[in-house]
């Protein structure tokens, strides 16, 4: 618990986006007793780090959606922020409601295809049903193709082959090396070895040229994926897409103009303040910081932003965010994993221990002040 701060009545921190960054900021503000409003389009936090396990294991999805209202009560507001008004210091929701801020934390993150990401404005119950529905499709399928061999794609292929070793699983990736470019070559090679050992077929250095014409996430017989280089056609009855994350910039791109990088991320200074604004911070995937986009980093950013808000209220010097050597753990199914910690190779045993999906998820439930459902 942080120590409670006595603040002026005019202080209200607004956090736009309740992902890993936004909820970490909310938890810290709550523990310091600083008034805040967390705004998100959904009614529940989605623990998307465990979304791939929820795609293969029946009933797991219920553990990956945590109600905001139960954690933050009246400090949560459901709605989509469509505009930030710098003159009046308000965020404007789609419903036209305006929420005044003394300090603003922008944590709108990124969007990508289901099942890795789930950024739809539907109820928690419907979201859970969609994941449980996908598990049923996976169970019906014989030949599953995963498109995209970044960190999400390799984890997806490994989860599938771990729980359903009898199914044909093919991973198609546009590059020859798998997982994130920021990982050491030996880590990327181990990822490849694990997938081959599990029996995943790898098609590397090829793009799927007809993905737009194919049905995703639903079993359909005799689907054919065409490649951009080889004439070979890959057959599938279920296709899962793990490519193409995009930064959610729509609510701020107009107002910050020059301070938005070409990928849509907000340029920030060392204190994580949006350049030119000392009461506006950007954290997580939507902050333009040269490091892998990760939940782990989003929570580190949140700590810096909240500390700096407290320091600015108490007239202390601001703290600085420094990117460290890469730490990234990949779960390759329930029983395997690989990664690096502070730049050092971490083998199977340690990663499996450190990154059991259940441990990760239950830690988040605790941080949000709730008990994980059985
Ligand atoms: C399949 C997968 C597995 C991953 N595994 C790991 C892992 O093991 N470890 C790790 O560290 N990272 C992992 N990552 C990366 C991690 O998920 C992201 O880096 C992290 O989610 C970023 O957190 P964030 O808070 O910046 O944004 P997000 O988690 O994307 O959250 C943004 C939130 O903002 C809301 N929002 C967006 N726009 C608006 C708006 N206009 N108004 C209101 N609300 C809005 C969204 O609804 C969402 O809730 C994984 C990513 C994927 C896709």
From TrEMBL:
UniProt keywords, alphabetically: FAD, Flavoprotein, Oxidoreductase
A GO CC annotation given for this chain: mitochondrion
Cofactor(s) of this protein: 6-hydroxy-FAD
Chain ranges of the FAD/NAD(P)-binding domain: 12-301
GO BP annotations listed: apoptotic mitochondrial changes; positive regulation of apoptotic process
Catalytic activity reported: menaquinone-4 + NADH + H(+) = menaquinol-4 + NAD(+); menadione + NADH + H(+) = menadiol + NAD(+); ubiquinone-10 + NADH + H(+) = ubiquinol-10 + NAD(+); phylloquinone + NADH + H(+) = phylloquinol + NAD(+)
GO MF assignments: electron-transferring-flavoprotein dehydrogenase activity; flavin adenine dinucleotide binding
SUPFAM superfamilies associated with the record: FAD/NAD(P)-binding domain (SSF51905)
Pfam families per UniProt: Pyr_redox_2
General function of this protein: Putative FAD-dependent oxidoreductase.
Family: Belongs to the FAD-dependent oxidoreductase family.
Full protein name: Ferroptosis suppressor protein 1
């Amino acid at each position: 618990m942080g120590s409670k701060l006595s603040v002026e009545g005019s202080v209200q921190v607004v956090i736009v986006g309740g992902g890993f960054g936004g909820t970490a900021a909310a938890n810290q503000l709550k523990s310091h007793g600083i008034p805040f409003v967390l705004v998100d389009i959904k009614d529940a936090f989605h623990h998307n780090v465990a979304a791939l396990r929820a795609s293969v294991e029946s009933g797991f999805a219920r553990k990956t959606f945590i109600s905001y209202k139960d954690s933050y009560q009246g400090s949560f507001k459901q709605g989509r922020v469509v505009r930030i008004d710098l003159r009046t210091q308000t965020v404007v929701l789609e419903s036209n409601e305006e929420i005044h801020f003394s300090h603003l934390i922008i944590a709108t993150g990124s969007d990508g295809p289901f099942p890795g990401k789930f950024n739809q404005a539907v109820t928690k119950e419907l979201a859970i049903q969609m994941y449980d529905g996908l598990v049923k499709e996976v169970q019906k399928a014989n030949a599953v193709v995963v498109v995209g061999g970044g960190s999400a794609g390799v984890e997806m292929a490994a989860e599938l082959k771990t729980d359903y070793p009898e199914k044909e699983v093919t991973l198609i990736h546009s590059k020859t090396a798998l997982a994130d470019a920021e990982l050491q070559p030996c880590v990327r090679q181990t990822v490849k070895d694990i997938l081959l050992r599990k029996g995943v077929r790898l098609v590397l250095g090829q793009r799927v040229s007809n993905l737009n014409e194919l049905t995703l996430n639903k079993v359909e017989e005799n689907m054919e994926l065409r490649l951009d280089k080889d004439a070979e056609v890959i057959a599938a009855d279920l296709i899962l897409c793990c490519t193409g994350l995009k930064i959610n910039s729509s609510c701020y791109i107009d107002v910050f103009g020059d301070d938005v990088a070409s990928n849509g991320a907000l340029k920030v200074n060392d204190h994580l303040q949006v350049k030119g604004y000392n009461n506006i911070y950007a954290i997580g995937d939507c902050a333009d910081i040269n490091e892998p986009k990760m939940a782990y980093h989003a929570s580190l950013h949140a700590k810096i932003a909240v500390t700096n808000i407290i320091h600015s209220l108490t007239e202390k010097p601001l703290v600085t965010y420094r990117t460290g050597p890469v730490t990234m753990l990949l779960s390759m199914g329930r029983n395997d994993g690989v990664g690096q910690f502070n730049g050092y190779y971490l083998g199977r045993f340690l990663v499996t221990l450190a990154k059991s999906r259940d441990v990760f998820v239950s830690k988040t439930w605790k941080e949000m002040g709730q008990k994980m459902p059985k």
